[in-house]
Design brief:
The chain is an alpha+beta fold. The chain is built from 13 helices and 22 strands. The protein has a seven-stranded mixed sheet with strand order 6-5-15-16-17-14-18, with helices on both faces. A six-stranded mixed sheet has the order 8-2-1-12-21-20. The structure holds flavin-adenine dinucleotide.
Length: 399
């Protein structure tokens, strides 16, 4: 179809899915991943209905479900009183989507699945330990410099996708501003096999509002399928890594969350800087930004990667049409024109509101939030409208 492949900087979930979506259309593609192996640190797990539909088109859905957990509902709790405020049930979307649930599947499993599938395409390659250090483009082609150990190579292609994460080299090479802000607190993720469903009646996705220390709780399958729980807390601004990670403080945080006899077994402890930022543009000529390279947000609501996968699928569709000659190259401008406002409206706005709802300190604001959640869950039409938005179905149907 083209003698020059589409080049992808970054083989995280967005780069790997973009590559698969291109390869399935017969487009030659090369992915350059800086790391030597897939990063297994606990990040995205929640895969929403809109994204499940896209992964079904890519024939990944059955494997994703097999490696993950199906969660139909999610819950809002008031942490100080221990009261369940509202439960939302994706079953109300049964007429809107074939997938009225989320799948909790760790993002490294999705990357591995996509890489396995890419092996079936002769014109697709996924290269580890290959760091893109420079990127350039003119009206006819793109070129990247790839460093492998102490060797560098210049590789040319037809188009370049920067899927190289929040610190994107490609975005910086294009001189595109990453507008927004970074929160003063960081997010601590503690992973434990302690069964919060059996012992405490929590759902697989539970959000806890608290004026002092909000929390999120998720269940994932884990690599052995036996189940792990991730508990997310905000740290205090200025708290050092040592203060956060030492065994006493980790145990205290969990015991304050849910007291139990004996210590909590902890299998991972991870700390993340959290931002709300959007690239000033998502493309420049033959170069495109997708996923965290284009936008980052706080993880409350589980939307960042979902939106990144939507970027990847939409961009692959557009590039395929242009490379097959079905569309003019000027149609590629649609990518920035559509994806940037969608991210601002459906991901930035929602995640900022989600965080405010959980951390609200004013008792009146908290009472209003709880009244809104109870009212929404109790009314069938409002319940459906709320879930259409949180599941990103509204963004793909009307965005
Ligand atoms: C605690 C936490 C929980 C989250 N939960 C959710 C969730 O439930 N749902 C959700 O939708 N999102 C969630 N997210 C967000 C999600 O993790 C990110 O949006 C997602 O990782 C973005 O994927 P990506 O492929 O764009 O970027 P990344 O995952 O950052 O991947 C980028 C890849 O590019 C590689 N790379 C970087 N620079 C270069 C270079 N110069 N050359 C070559 N390769 C390079 C990196 O090694 C990496 O493999 C969460 C995030 C956090 C921190």
């Amino acid at each position: 179809m083209t003698e020059h492949p589409v080049l992808i900087a970054g083989g995280g979930p967005v780069g790997a899915i973009a590559a698969l979506a291109l390869a399935r259309q017969g487009v030659a593609v090369r992915v350059f991943e800086a790391d030597a192996a897939i990063d297994e640190s606990p990040r995205a797990a929640t895969t929403h209905p809109a994204t499940l539909e896209m992964l079904a088109d890519l024939r990944l859905i059955d494997d994703l479900i097999a490696r993950g957990l199906v969660a139909r509902t999610f819950q809002f709790w008031d942490r100080p009183s221990g009261q369940l405020i509202a439960e939302f049930d994706h079953a109300v979307l049964a007429r809107d989507t074939p997938y009225p649930f989320v799948v909790q599947c760790e993002q490294h499993k999705l990357v591995n699945l996509a890489i396995e599938r890419l092996r079936g395409f002769a014109d697709a390659s996924y290269e580890f330990s290959a760091q893109v250090t420079e990127a350039e483009a003119d009206a006819h082609a793109v070129a990247v410099t790839v460093r492998r150990g102490n060797r560098t190579e210049r590789v040319t292609g037809s188009y370049l996708i920067g899927a190289d994460g929040g610190r994107s080299t490609v975005r910086k090479a294009l001189g595109i501003a990453f507008e927004g802000y970074t929160f003063p607190e960081r997010f601590l993720v503690l992973t434990t096999p302690f069964d919060f469903a059996r012992e405490r009646g929590c759902g697989f996705r539970s959000y806890f509002s608290d004026p002092d220390e909000w929390a999120n709780l998720f269940k994932v399958a884990g690599n052995d399928g036996r189940g792990l729980w991730r508990v997310v807390f905000p740290t205090l601004p200025g708290e050092t890594d040592e203060e956060i990670f030492n065994e006493d403080s980790v145990q205290q945080r969990l015991q304050k969350f849910f007291p139990k006899s004996g210590t909590y077994p902890i299998v991972h402890r991870n700390l993340y800087n959290v931002h709300q930022r959007v690239a000033a543009r998502f493309s420049h000529g033959r170069v495109f930004l997708a996923g965290d390279a284009a936008h980052v947000n706080n993880p409350i609501g589980g939307l960042g990667l979902n939106c990144g996968i939507h970027d990847a699928v939409e961009l692959a569709g557009l590039l395929g049409k242009v490379l097959r000659g079905e569309e003019n190259t000027d149609q590629l401008a649609l990518y920035d024109a559509r994806r940037r406002p969608i991210n601002v409206k459906y991901v930035q706005e929602q995640t900022i509101a989600n965080k405010k709802r959980l951390e609200a300190k004013d008792p009146n604001a908290r009472a209003e939030n709880f009244a809104f959640l109870r009212r929404t869950a109790a009314d069938a039409a409002a319940h459906r409208a709320f879930l259409l938005r949180t599941s990103l179905l509204e963004s793909v149907r009307h965005g």
